[in-house]
Amino acid sequence: MTDDLIHNPKGGMPRLLEIMRRLRDPETGCPWDIEQTFATIAPYTIEEAYEVADAIEREAWDELKGELGDLLFQSVFHAQMADDAGMFTFDQVADTMSDKMVARHPHVFGDESRDKSATQQTVDWEVQKARERAAKGEVRVLDGVAKGLPALTRAVKLQKRAARVGFDWPEIGQVLDKLVEEAHEIKDAQDSGDHDHVTEEFGDFLFVAANLARHLKIDPEEALRAANQKFIRRFNQVEDAITASGRNMSDADLAEMDAIWDAVKAREKAAD
């Protein structure tokens, strides 16, 4: 067996596939890679997808190539495990995607006119996806919404599906009223002392919050990521102020930290 391809810096996709095959070789491969399963690798796949999104959000273009490579490796890993089990190959994965793209773009690869808007193409895309779901026996309105999606994203997708058949609030004000109602129900559940009930009502609150984001045409995951970053930025400034006085964060009380936080917030708003 030659290692020429393995060590060829310009070996491209064949090199990566061969590396993965060698890693999974039951006799000469890596013990860790050999013992992995679809279930054990899936969390890494999700993590790598988020790291791609993070690099894009930060416009870290020098990092994006590597992050895309990490995500590609996850697909290669899953495909190799499937190949080992006699299920399908990486080439079949690629062919499946190619077939899907050709079928969903008859205005590019077929005889359908390209003379339509991006909005109309989105509508046509959804129609084609509905046909594909029906062909797989997914005939109910909410069938086929992936369970592994982040919960807020899945909530929005479920709500969009329901809205297509008219199950939706027509006014944003109604969604806001429902959000207030759900907040009161959390308080009532908390007063009851039933933690499971509190958890259920909090889930309802988040579900309606996701619905509000949809009505406002906001990606709730993106909005929450931005809020997380804002919190980190402001908290770091609070920490800097405390440590600049020669103390640790544990030496400051909440009132002092709140006062610094308010000052940081005021500076940011004044700078906008």
TrEMBL record:
It comes from the Bacteria. The keyword Hydrolase applies. One of its GO terms (biological process) is dUTP catabolic process. GO terms for molecular function: ATP diphosphatase activity. Keywords: Hydrolase. SUPFAM superfamilies: all-alpha NTP pyrophosphatases. It is an enzyme of class 3 (hydrolase). Residues 36-109, 176-238 form the NTP pyrophosphohydrolase MazG-like domain. It catalyses: ATP + H2O = AMP + diphosphate + H(+). Its EC number is 3.6.1.8. PANTHER family: NUCLEOSIDE TRIPHOSPHATE PYROPHOSPHOHYDROLASE. Belongs to the nucleoside triphosphate pyrophosphohydrolase family. NCBIfam families: mazG (TIGR00444), PRK09562.1 (NF007113). This is Nucleoside triphosphate pyrophosphohydrolase. It comes from Actibacterium mucosum KCTC 23349.
